[in-house]
Amino acid sequence: MLLLSLTDEKTQAEKEAAEEARKSGEKKAIAAKKIQLELEAARKVEEEKARGIAEEARKAEEEARKAKEARKAEEAREAKEEARKAKEALRIQAEEEEKARKMAKIVEAERLAAEKTAGIGSSATHARFKAKRLARIEDVANARKQPQDPEKEKLVAAKYAALSPEKRAFSILYDLGMIESTPDPDDPEYDPTYDEEFCPENSAIPQ
Fold first, then answer.
1. Which three-class secondary structure string do you get for 16-54?
2. Residues 117, 193 contacting (CB under 8 angstroms)
3. In principle, which of 27, 57, 84, 173 could form an S-S bond with 178, CB 3.0–4.6 Å?
4. In angstroms, rounded to a whole number, what is the distance separating the alpha carbons of residues 201 and 137?
5. By the 8 A CB rule, do 201 and 180 touch?
6. Residue pair 145/177 in contact by the 8 Å Cβ criterion
């Protein structure tokens, strides 16, 4: 009976040891699984951070590319505008030079015509008329010059502002040489030198 009892105790102890071993194995497996899950979660977090960093880098690179393209486009626009302004300045300069050349021809034609008709009529009256005519041509040439002196422009503007609309229109056209004032034949200073010519106020431009 004693031997049977010892065998039963041994068997029971073995069962208890086996159960403890099983429980310990399960705990270790659970712990290992937990560690594995934690490592997997940490890996996912790191991957997500890496993706976020990569996305930020991609966005920054895209923004830099867009800024560079915008800067190039702006520089190209500015260069185009500068070229247009330079071209416009050259065009205006060429027009002004052409106007000056034509006016110089008109002045020279007037001078030659005046010299050609020297001695006709009263020499004193004709000389005064010639001086007035040349002064008139010079005044018109100066009025057409651009750009004008700012101070002179203020004086001219003030002169026109003091006139009525009708007189202002006439004065502007007259100052620019677009119309002429018909001389009075009864004026003691009247010069009849060009009375036999048609439209004496018009001068041919030498070619």
1. HHHHHHHHHHHHHHHHHHHHHHHHHHHHHHHHHHHHHHH
2. yes
3. 173
4. 11
5. yes
6. no
Rounded distance between C-alpha atoms, residue 114 and residue 126, angstroms: 9
Which tokens sit at 64?
Answer: 């830099």
CA 195 to chain centre: 56
pLDDT digits (tens, 9 = 90+) for 77-130: 988 998 998 888 889 888 888 888 888 888 877 777 666 555 444 566 667 777
Q: Is the pLDDT of residue 144 over 80?
A: yes
CA distance 202 to 200: 5
Which residue reads 């290992």 in tokens?
Answer: 32
Amino acid at 30: I
What is the pLDDT, as a whole number, of residue 161? 92
Q: Taking a C-beta distance cutoff of 8 angstroms, is the pair 102, 205 a contact?
A: yes
DSSP assignment of the chain equals -HHHHHHHHHHHHHHHHHHHHHHHHHHHHHHHHHHHHHHHHHHHHHHHHHHHHHHHHHHHHHHHHHHHHHHHHHHHHHHHHHHHHHHHHHHHHHHHHHHHHHHHHHHHHHHHHHHHTTTSS-HHHHHHHHHHHHHHHHHHHHHH-SSPPHHHHHHHHHHHHTS-HHHHHHHHHHHTTSS-PPPPTTSTT--GGGTTSSSTT--PPP-
Give the Cα-Cα-Cα angle 31, 37, 40 (nearest 5 degrees).
140
